[in-house]
Design brief:
This protein has 235 residues and is an alpha/beta fold. It contains nine helices and eight strands.
Length: 235
C-alpha cells in the first residue's frame, strides 16, 4: 500500500488546522508536494488526488518528471540552482524559490528573454539563521541589492524563501520564520513608492510547517510526510 493518500490527507488536515488556529484562511497557504528522489508514479498519485503544485530540488529530476507528467502541474524549483542550468527550466517552472544571488537573477532574466518567456516569478532565498552550510543571501545583502532585483523586467520577485536549520524541536524554527516575515515587511516599506508585492513567504517543511503557517507562510514545502522517508542509498 502506498503512503501517499494517507500522508497527503494528514498534511492537508494539519495545514487547515494550523491556519485556522492562527486565524488565517487555509486557502492562503499552498501545499507544495516535494517528490524529490521519488518516482513519477508517486507524484501521479498525489496529482490524481488533486495536488497540482510539486517541488523538486534538482534540475535534471525536475525536467525528467516534467516530460513524464501532466502539463497542468505547477513545478517549483526549490533547490540550489546553478547559472548554467537555468536554461533547462526557465520555461517549465511556475516559481523558482531558491534565487540566492543577483548574478543568478540576471542569468534568469537573460534566459527568459532568449526563450520568449515574458515573466518568470521568483523568490529570494535568505539565510536568516546565519547557519554556514545554508545557501541564501544574508538579510543585509538582500536589503542592499533589493532595488536591483526589483528593476529586472522579466524576473518578478514575489517574495522570500528560507530553510530553517534542522532541529528536533520545531519551535526552534519560529524565530527564523518570524525574521523572514519581518524582512518582507521591511522591503515593502522601503519600496512603498514602487507599489511592490514581495509578500509571499516560502517556509516550513514536514517537521515545522505548522509553525511556519502560524508565522505567515504562503507556501509550505512538504516531502517526507506525503511520500515517506527518502532513500539515497542508490545515488
Ligand atoms: C527536501 C526539501 C523539502 C521537503 O522536506 P521534508 O522534510 O521531506 O518535508 C523542503 N524544502 C526543500 C528546499 C527541500 O530540499
Amino acid at each position: 500500500m502506498s503512503h501517499v493518500p494517507e500522508g497527503l490527507k494528514e498534511a492537508l488536515e494539519q495545514i487547515t488546522e494550523a491556519a485556522e488556529n492562527a486565524g488565517r484562511d487555509p486557502r492562503d497557504v499552498t501545499l507544495i508536494a516535494v517528490g524529490k528522489t521519488k518516482p513519477a508514479s508517486m507524484i501521479r498519485e498525489a496529482y490524481d488526488l488533486g495536488i497540482r503544485d510539486f517541488g523538486e530540488n534538482k534540475v535534471q529530476e525536475l525536467t525528467a518528471k516534467y516530460e513524464e507528467l501532466p502539463k497542468d502541474i505547477r513545478w517549483h524549483m526549490i533547490g540550489h540552482l546553478q547559472s548554467n542550468k537555468v536554461k533547462y527550466i526557465v520555461d517549465k517552472v511556475a516559481l523558482i524559490h531558491s534565487v540566492d544571488s543577483l548574478k543568478l537573477a540576471k542569468v534568469i532574466e537573460k534566459e527568459a528573454a532568449k526563450k520568449g518567456v515574458e515573466h518568470i516569478d521568483i523568490l529570494l532565498e535568505v539565510n536568516v539563521s546565519g547557519e554556514e552550510s545554508k545557501f541564501g543571501m544574508t538579510p543585509d545583502e538582500l536589503l542592499e541589492q533589493i532595488d536591483e532585483f526589483l528593476a529586472l523586467e522579466r524576473v518578478r520577485v514575489r517574495g522570500l524563501m528560507t530553510i530553517a536549520p534542522f532541529t528536533e524541536d520545531p519551535e526552534e524554527s519560529r524565530p527564523h520564520f518570524r525574521r523572514l516575515r519581518q524582512l518582507s515587511v521591511d522591503i515593502q516599506q522601503q519600496n512603498r513608492h514602487n507599489n511592490i508585492d514581495v509578500a509571499r513567504l516560502s517556509m516550513g517543511m514536514s517537521g515545522d510547517f505548522r509553525i511556519a503557517i502560524e508565522e505567515g507562510a504562503s507556501y509550505v514545502r512538504i516531502g517526507t510526510m506525503i511520500f515517506g522517508e527518502r532513500d539515497y542509498s542508490h545515488q
